Amino acid sequence: MNEQEAGDLIKDVLSSARGVAGAKARGLSPDELEQLGKTVCAALDGDNVNFMSALTIAVVPKVAREGRRLSVIFKPFIYVQRRKKRSFAVLAPPQYETDFASIPGIVRWLISPFGKHAEAAVIHDWLYAIGARGDGYARKHADKIFLEAMKYLGVGFLRRQIMFLGVRIGGGTAFGRGDELRFRDLVNLEIEPDDIGRDAWRKFTTCWHEGK
Fold first, then answer.
1. Cβ within 8 Å of residue 126, ≥6 positions away
2. pLDDT of res. 101
3. Which residues pair with 208 in a beta bridge?
4. What is the residue extent of each domain of the chain?
5. How far is CA 23 from each of CA 18, 78, 190, rounded to the nearest angstrom?
6. Model pTM?
7. Low-confidence ranges of the chain (pLDDT < 50)
């Protein structure tokens, strides 16, 4: 994917997700959700290289979770992972709240919640947030996508393997948990209810393609 193709893809994503990008993203119509899903799947067309758009966030002031700062996605954030047998695209929408990598405080001197792996952690957070509770197969794929995204971002082999093992061993209780799907208004950064639902988000912000 060259610079022009990447720019066109971002424009398409932003255009199709314009309803998501506003301050009242929870009010998407069924047609807008369906168009969003088509855009995510369309991102799998093209050559055989992975792609990630720029991550734009708003940092929430004076709020933390277990010592980790919270941020809100400001523009649609997409990651495309292409493989010969199974390719995948995922879009994390605006207003979604993330705390990046859930690194225990005792080892943050070694691995920061926000580092070279930050974008991969956001994708992983989103896949966990929209996951179906108890779906071990989907959780395993989310963890593998996290691993591949870290590789794409240039995270070193040892560090990404440590982080991958960390989510495999300690992430089971978080997958599909109710409080993982959190949104904030883009103007005042106050918490907003989700009127769309986990199943619809999963359907319209992820896309698999067999045999690409």
1. 90, 92, 96, 98, 205
2. 55
3. 88
4. 3-210
5. 10, 19, 11
6. 0.80
7. 17-25, 103-110, 212
- What the block records as the tokens of 109 is 């001197």
Can you tell me which residue has the tokens 């792609």? 51
Cα of 68 vs its chain's centroid, Å: 18
Tell me the C-alpha distance between 87 and 90, whole Å.
Answer: 11
Contacts for 123 with CB less than 8 Å, ≥ 6 apart: 77, 79, 90, 92, 145, 146, 149
